[in-house]
Amino acid sequence: MKPLDAPRYKFCPMCGHPLVTKRPLDDVRVREVCEACGFVHYVNPTPVVGTLPVFGGRVLLCRRAIEPRKGKWTLPAGFMEAHETLQQGALRETWEETGAHARAGMLLTVIDVPYASQVHFFFLSELDALPLAPGPETMEQRLFSESEIPWDDISFTTVKTTLEHYFNDRRKGEFRLHMYRLDE
């Protein structure tokens, strides 16, 4: 991992002076620092939140209408917004991408993705009705049984892994939280 894993900013957002790259006193990482006002630009991972929506024993997948991985199948998910909980963000993303109001269940997977500076959180969810109209980020949505999942056309490793955990847990008759790190 690079010592400074973020976009390089040229100017301080607080006072407008140029930023320099250095390790602040009492810190363990190199950061962007303003030597005029002392502002330190901290880079934190971005939470990605989503659901694994289930209706009638089948999983709802969305075909992506946007990059990255346009045309691939995914679970409804996206970046968490400020001032919302993980679960609120996951349900919002589900509604935005599928048009469905879901009821969130337990947290199923937490996947660290350090090379992308992200942490992915997927909740089990249930749909009360089939969504009629997906949002603009989704070109198509369908319900799939396990044998129908288009495994070779899944968008992201975190989505594939979450689906695998769901079906394995369902076969065992007991769902549990799965946590791990995804290396590049």
Keywords summarizing the entry:
elongated; single chain; eight-stranded mixed sheet; alpha+beta; 2 domains; Ubiquitin Ligase Nedd4, Chain: W; Nucleoside Triphosphate Pyrophosphohydrolase; 184 residues; 2 helices; 11 strands; three-stranded antiparallel sheet
Strand tally is 11
Under CATH at level 1, the class of the largest domain stands as: Alpha Beta
Number of continuous helical runs: 2
Helix and strand composition category? alpha+beta
Order of helices and strands: EEEEEEEHEEEHE
CATH architecture term of the largest domain: Alpha-Beta Complex
Major pleated sheet: 8 strands, mixed
Q: List unreliable stretches of 5+ residues.
A: none
Task: Report the span from N to C terminus.
Answer: 11 Å
Domain count: 2
What's the CATH H-level superfamily name of the largest domain? Nucleoside Triphosphate Pyrophosphohydrolase
Rg, Å, rounded: 19 Å
Mean pLDDT: 94
Indicate the percent of residues in helices. Answer: 10-25%
* Coarse shape: elongated
Proportion in β-strands = 35-45%
CATH topology of the largest domain: Nucleoside Triphosphate Pyrophosphohydrolase
